[in-house]
Structure formats: C-alpha cells, structure tokens
Amino acid sequence: MKGAAVAIASVSPATGEVLKTFDPMPEDRIDAALDRAMGGFDKVRHLSFKERGEWMRALADLLDDERDEIAALMTTEMGKTLAAAKAEVTKCAYACRFYAGRSAGFLADEPADPAAVGAHLAYAHYQPLGPVLAIMPWNFPLWQVMRFAAPALMAGNVGLLKHASNVPQTALRLEDLFKRAGFPEGAFQTLLIGSDAVERVLTDDRVRAATLTGSEAAGRSVAAIAGRALKKTVLELGGSDPFVVMPSADLDRAAQVAATSRCLNNGQSCISAKRFIVHADAYDAFAEAFVGRMSAMTLGDPMASDTDVGPLATEQGRTDVEEQVADAREKGARVLCGGERPDRPGWWYPPTVVAGITPEMRMWSEEVFGPVAGLYKVGSYDEAVAVANDTTFGLGANAWTTDPGEQEQFVADLESGQVFLNGMTTSYPELPFGGVKNSGYGRELSAHGIREFCNLKTVWVA
C-alpha cells in the first residue's frame, strides 16, 4: 500500500480545527512492536478459550463503563452523532461477549468418518495463524476494529492495528482498553503509521495475515502486497447498495427506513442504501415520502441530542460528494432536496436526493460517501434487478416487497454478500458479513469470521 506519508492528526469535522497531532512511529519502534506481537502470540495461543473469554468479557465491561467518554472521543474525531457513537460502543461490547461465549463451539474439532479414510480417528482442527495486521477506516472507528479483534483474539491470534490517520486518539484508546482488560503485552497494539509504512509491516515475516476495510484502491494494493508475500487477506471495500421498492411494499415504512439508512453515520456507511430503485407504480408515492423524510433530517452539532446528521469526516470527503452531485446536475439530473453546502465552518453537507440518474453520470457507477441518495424509476422486476446489479460493487442489497415469489427471486438474483428484505441492512455478530465483486472477499462476524484467520489442520490417526 504505497503513497505519501499522511499526517496523523485529530481534526474536528465540525469546525476544521486541528485538535492534536502525532508523529509516525519510527522504524525501531515498529520493530519492537512486531517483536511484542510475536511474544504475545506465544502466550495467547496456548491459553484456553475460558481464559481468553475472561479478558474479552472484561473488555466488554470497560466499554460499557466508559461508553460516554469513548463515544464523545469518536464524535470529536470523525463527526458521527453522539447517539450513534454510544450505540456503536454498546454494539462492540455485545460482540465481545458474543465471541467470549461462542468461540469454543465455533472452533471445535470437526470429526470425519474414520472408516472412509482408513483411520482410527480423523478430524479437522482449528489453530490460530499469528499476528494479523488490521488496516481500518475512520467511519466506524470502534466497531470496524472490534468485529475483527474480538474473533481474532478469541481464536488465539494477536492484532496489530493500523487505523485511519484521522482517528489516532480512538486508535490509542483501543490499545489501552485491551491492556486494561488483562490481555498480555503484545496481544493488541496500535501502530501509528501512515499508508507509506504498510508494505514494510505486511511483508515482515512476523506478520502472518491482514484484514482491510477501506477503498477499492487500498484493497487492491494490500491484496497485491499480501499476494506476493503469500499471506491470507480479508477485504471489505465498500459498496453502492441498491434499495429496491416494488408496488406491494409498505411505502411509508420503506421511505422511513430509506432515509434512516441513507443518513446513517452522516451518510458514511458502506452498507447504507445508496441507490433507490423504485417501480413506476410506486415511484411517485415513495419519492414524495422519501424526499419529505430526507428534508426533515436535522443537520447540526453532532454532540446535540436532536441532531440527525453531523458533518462529513474530512474536507476531501465533502469535496468528493459535492463534485458527484454537481456532475449529475450538469448532465441533467434533478436535485429534489439539499444539494448545497451550508455556509459555516467545518465539512457539512445536507441530506440530498437526486433523481434522473443516467449511466454517464458519476453517481451511476461510483459510491457516494455522504448523505446523498440517487433515485431511479424502473418499469419491471427485471429492470429493477438489472439496475441493482449494474455496479462493480456487491456488498449489501435491500428489497421491499410483500410478494413471496418476488422475495425468493430477489434473494437469488441480487449480486451481493447480503440481502435484507423489508428491513434495513446492518451487521450482526450472529451473521456473516462481507461482499462479492469489487466489494472484496472473505467474511467477518459469525462462525465464518472467526475461522478466517485460522489454519484448518487435518488430523489422521492410524
């Protein structure tokens, strides 16, 4: 993952003020961290699930006890509403307890038929790989990390976190939480490094695998580096999720969920619905309800309890969204609400609905990472599926219909890692999470997620 060194700094998205800066770790400190990771792995891998689970439950308790403080730190660094940040901390605590209680079962030996293979005993056995480099984004600065770390450490691996350069205080707080929960030295460490140092860490023999949530370009870079080094990777690279509405749907409920999904995390969520594909027979009623709900969203101080949408996390992110909307408008699209930045310090952009998107517009093929919805009218089920699948991404998909036959068809026909029917796409520790096509490969969460960074060893006994 090449590129120029990026400043490691907390910058308030609400004001643009630089709050705190950090120097990148020098080479000798990176080497020392990798040595600690190997030492931590030698300890963690030999402990029982019960022992690791006690630390993981202690971590959950710390998250619950310090929820408000941790949430305020996330809001300060990346601008999500305080209510959303508190919910994120609570979700992380739940995931810790989930894996503390279920990992032994997820990684239990899997017996085979010994007679079929000419053995007295035969089974598959899961073992951890070692230190795993986690390259994580800023949009869910706690949850993105924890959904990797909880299963990986419960499996006996250790974590090396290279977090996004605009959330360094959250990254350091995570390392502190793991230490205070009782995990041994080297079990979880934050590396304050820029993207220019990723290749040096990933190719080091002490690092055994990597996981990345981020942009398609970052995923290609990390996959190429890891491929040359023959190291396992899991990639989640974003999405441009369809939200299909058919005539039988509950249109008021669909419009409510559509607005909530599009504005979740200030519009900066990979699995938020982004392209709203509506059958012509339902289009007018849905569009009116949807635009009304988007227009009613409160844009304001992310610390305030009545705020629905805060600022975008970075100035470049706001610029990207503005340019995508401007491109659509210049090529004939209609902006039904929003579309103009407010005149105030910080990186604000209002909830926006753009109709009449056509293939030559950037919004047709690009992910829009802000509270901007593309609205599409289609004339049939087949056209809806064609538009939904006309994207290089395949992370999540959402369809609204009460017709059982259509529901079955959508599950079969939508090209995505997840399909949610008549409800908002989200992630749960109980369900596998990941995508297809350019949204990446591998799975996080559930039993599938904890097995990604394990060696599945065949055991045959005469």
How is this structure best described in words?
The protein is α/β, with parallel strands linked by helices and 462 residues long. The protein folds into 2 domains: 8-238 and 437-461, Aldehyde Dehydrogenase, Chain A, domain 1; 241-392 and 396-421, Aldehyde Dehydrogenase, Chain A, domain 2. Helices cover 41% and strands 19% of the residues. It contains 15 helices and 18 strands. The chain has helices spanning 27-44, 49-65, 67-78, 82-106, 143-154, 168-181, 198-202, 216-228, 251-263, 280-295, 315-330, 362-365, 381-389, 404-413, 446-451, and strands at 8-11, 18-22, 110-111, 121-128, 131-135, 158-162, 188-190, 209-213, 232-236, 241-245, 273-279, 334-337, 352-355, 372-378, 396-400, 418-421, 440-441, 454-461. The strands form 4 sheets. It has a 7-stranded mixed beta sheet with strand order 12-13-14-11-10-15-16, with helices on both faces. Helix 12 (362-365) links the parallel strand 13 and strand 14. The radius of gyration is 23 Å and the shape is globular. Residues 7-459 form the Aldehyde dehydrogenase domain. It holds the Pfam family Aldedh. Belongs to the aldehyde dehydrogenase family.
